Structure formats: C-alpha cells, structure tokens
Amino acid sequence: MDQPHHACHMAGLGRTGFQSRVAPGYRHVAAADWCLPRRRYETFLRSETSMSLDDQPAEAMSRRALLGRELRRLRKRKGWTGPQLAQLLGWSQSKVSRLETGQRSAALADVTAWLDVTETEGDPRTRVLDLAESLLGQITGLRALHQGSLVRRQVELQSIDSEAQLVRQFQPLMAPGVFHTETYARACIASANLTAERDLDSAVAARLERGRRVLSGEGPVYHVVLCESALRWRPHGCSPEQLRRLWHRVAEIVDHRNITLQVIPDSTPTTALPQCGFSMWSWGYGPDSQFALVETPAAEVTFTSSEDIAMFERVWHEMIKVALSPEQSRGWIIRFARI
Predict the structure, then answer these.
(1) Spatial strand order in the sheet of 166-171
(2) 98: which of 14, 33, 73, 104 is 20 to 30 A away, CA to CA?
(3) Helix axes 93-101, 63-77, angle to 10 degrees
(4) Are the C-beta atoms of 95 and 281 separated by less than 8 Å?
C-alpha cells in the first residue's frame, strides 16, 4: 500500500520555500506567467473575512451551517470560549471556529467528541447526531456554493487545506490547481463559470495563492495521480504555447517535497473505471478523518461516510497500481515537457 509512502513524506516534511529545479533541455517558465496578482486577492480577502454567516444569502444557510449553530450553542451552554473547547479536545482553535461557522465538513468522530466533552445526552445528542449523519453525502448547487462570487470557493479550499495533512487528487481531465499558470487558471475558471459570476480576476488570484501556499510549505502534502489526457486538454483561451508553459511548470515543481506526482500514460490499461476526477482531504488515517469531493457541472458532492470513503480509497489504490512511480513520472514529465 502507498500510505506508508505518504507518512514518510509527512514525517520528513520540511517547511522550506519553493526551490525550482530545472532539468536540462527545457526552459524556465517566466515567473510573470504564474505569479500571484496579490493585491486583488488581498483586497477580496479582507472583505470576505469580515462577512459573518448571517450576512450571507438564505440559500447558504445549509444543514452544515445549522449543525455549526447547534455545536456553538452546546459550547456556550458550558460557558466555554472557542479556545477553551479547542484545548479540551486537543484541536486547533481554527478547527472549532470553522465547524461552528459551517466552513468545514464535520466528521462523525468530531461531532461525537464535541457531544462527549459538553456532556450532551438524550434527545439533544440524538438530534445533533442525526443532523451530522444527514451531511455524510452533501450536495451543494453551484449558485449556493459561489453565492455570487467565484473567489469565495477558492478561499474556502485554502481554509480546508490549512487543516489537512494530506490532499489526494485523481484527475483525468485537467491539471490540478496547484500546477496552474495564471493563463491556464484563467481559462479553466472561465470555462467552468456557468453561473456567470464576474470576479474572475480575484478567483484566478485566489487559486494561484492556494498553489503558492502549498509550494511554500504552508499547506498539506499533495499526492496527485494525473492522466496524460489531463495534460493534453486545452481550455478555450489557452494557446498551444501557453499550454506548453503549463507542462514546463509541472516539470519544474514535480520534485517539490510537498508534492508526489504519478502519471498514467494514455497507453496504460486500467483496472478500475473511476468515471470522474475526485479529491480527498485527510486529517489522519481513519475513515472518520477524511472526506472526498466530486465536482460536477451543476453541483459539488461531499462524501464523508466510512463506506463511501472506502470506495474512493479502493479506486485510488487501483489508480496507484497502474500509474508510473513518482521517479518514473518525473522522467516522463520532463520528456513530455520537451515535446
């Protein structure tokens, strides 16, 4: 199994800055093509963090937000502050805050621990657990997800990354966001903007900021299984030369210590049919400390039940079996980038 490989990476994870290692035979990507338009992003972030849950549209008050309110009520009933509860549970203060505001999916194990420490029993306990279980497979429509802003989701993903130890992505269609150049990110976000939101520049900046955090050591370990077809796909607005720049960027950062990349060449027969790309976030190694995410044209689907996670794990390991090793993938990417 590949899990020990992840553990070794995490155990030796150094918080060093990004260092580009450019192999002979291909040029360095111009930094201006993928650097962050930081001012636009920071302007949005200041306004975003000042927005309370009550300021958001009614459609955003999802079951996850309702669960957060229940958890907050139980904490306040004990007379505890957020930091006090975090200390009792051995969690970070930000985890408590995000659970209470509905900004983070709640694992059943986390909800149970919360109920135990607040000594919640009887009907109140049952009600909260029922609400938590109803979220095990949550579907969120794009309009509710974006709430009028493309960048909102990018900021939320940064928050999720900041708590995770490991992010795994299987991507058969497009390069994952951590590899994006500015041009490629803009083309991808514009192509997926089915709700006609207007803050494209800020969304691009936020996506690049997410990648920057991973490469600077601020984010989790990333393990990506990437199909060759994902590298060849070219969204509207991305020229062949700009796509080539994406390939060079992937080749530059494939050795980064936060990133493990494995490639499945087009000619490789596979033993599973995943049917779509997916992402998995892990805070530990148990099924209760993970969730999986699938994006569709109309909605985003979150899976947190142990049965669902087990199915994603099974497909993930089938993909790992047929993919090139990280070392082989590195050589393959370098050769591919020279095309």
Answers:
(1) 137-141, 299-303, 290-295, 278-282, 166-171, 221-227, 259-264
(2) 14
(3) 120
(4) no
Q: How many CA atoms lie within 13 A of 68 on its CB side?
A: 20
Domain boundaries, the chain: 3-47+147-337, 57-136
Q: Which residues pair with residue 281 across a beta bridge? A: 167, 291
Question: Rounded CA gap, 286 and 308, in Å?
Answer: 13
> Crossing angle of helices 326-337/240-253, nearest 10°?
150
User: Exposure pattern of 279-313 as b/e (b: 16+ CB <10 Å)?
Assistant: bbbbbeeebbbbbbbbbeeeebbbbbbeebbeebb
Tell whether pTM > 0.70.
no
Are 225 and 323 contacting, i.e. CB atoms less than 8 angstroms apart? yes
Cβ(336)–Cβ(231) under 8 Å?
A: yes
Could you give the 3-state DSSP secondary structure of residue 275?
Answer: coil
Distance CA 160, CA 262 (A): 23
Give the HSE-up count for residue 164: Cα atoms under 13 Å, Cβ half-sphere.
Answer: 26
- Distance CA(321)–CA(77), nearest Å, equals 50
For residue 166, give the amino acid letter: L
Tokens 């989701």 correspond to 153
Q: Which residue, among 121, 53, 110, 120, has the nearest Cα to 86 in the 3D structure?
A: 110
CATH of domain 57-136: 1.10.260.40
CA angle 186, 332, 278 (to 5 degrees): 50
